[in-house]
Amino acid sequence: MPVLLSTTAPKPLPLPRSTRTVAEEVRRLADGGELTLPLPGVDTGRRWTALAALGRTDLAVARLAEGHVDALAILAEAGRPSVPDALYGVWAARSGGTGAELTPNGLEGTVRFCSGLTALDRALVVATTPGGDGSTCRLVDVDLRAPGIVREPEHWQAIGMDASDSGDVRFDALEVTPDMVVGPPGWYLSRPGFVLGGGGVAAVWLGGTAGVVDDVLASLASKADEHQLAHLGAVHTALRCAEALLADAATRVDTAPETDHTLLMSTCRAAAERAAWETLDRVPRITGATPLCRDHAFAQRLADLQVYVRQHHAERDLAALGRAVLTEAAPR
């Protein structure tokens, strides 16, 4: 079984960060081959280990890197080559009734939560068709230098993940040619890699959680009292339980890559989210207010994790998971 979290914490990037330094770091990693990862279902453990290490180092860097490697995996699954040296993202959010739409006039609409807003070269944009739903969505490979793209970074007001270069993108009749469309209608959501990609995000959350614990361990040294130790023990247990589940899941995926792993990946995401929130709840009780107020890097790490882990839709995702568990247990 793979071990997703090394016993040695990776060296964090220097802070304070900026959008430019985060984007430059992701491009450096890509140019150096460090983002050329095994595809999901081939060596999933090594893929998730790399993603967890990125999250443990810097969640803003990990966000852009995870989007890039997910895009490369999607293109590989479609049998399409990626553009050499291009930095990719996947822009798929349909928050609050927004989202891209593929119309006779081209690509239109607003997509929220687009990370790498100003730094990426290309994005795979998920778009519905007029009157259609997710089952008929199309995936469009967009050159972000094309006309008809309006970037709106001012809509990102969060302190958490503020270095991820995120915001809204408005598509204004962007021309879409047939060669830009990836896969048939509905392919993006129905392909096996869609589910496995969600497990990769969980690995990043796991790494981000481990990074917070690294900071706590460094600050405590040998001066912890019994209350701090109790919280530390609980955080350690939650983190290692989630890690063990993801490591086992990676092995299961590689053993049967064509199997429907939806229930397994949903469970991994829920476990990683739970470990993150256990940590976010207990760590301030371990440290007190001082590092939250006087250590920018530490406070930023907590804020980043709090925002990033909300890609999990809380009770909605848990209800869907419970429904799947009940269906799985039903007599056939």
Automatic annotation (TrEMBL):
Signal sequence coordinates: none
Superkingdom classification of source: Bacteria
Any one GO MF annotation of this record: oxidoreductase activity, acting on the CH-CH group of donors
Bilayer-crossing regions: none
Coiled coil: none
InterPro entries found in the cross-reference section: Acyl-CoA_Oxase/DH_mid-dom_sf, AcylCo_DH-like_C, AcylCoA_DH/oxidase_NM_dom_sf
Name of the molecule in the record: Alkylation response protein AidB-like acyl-CoA dehydrogenase
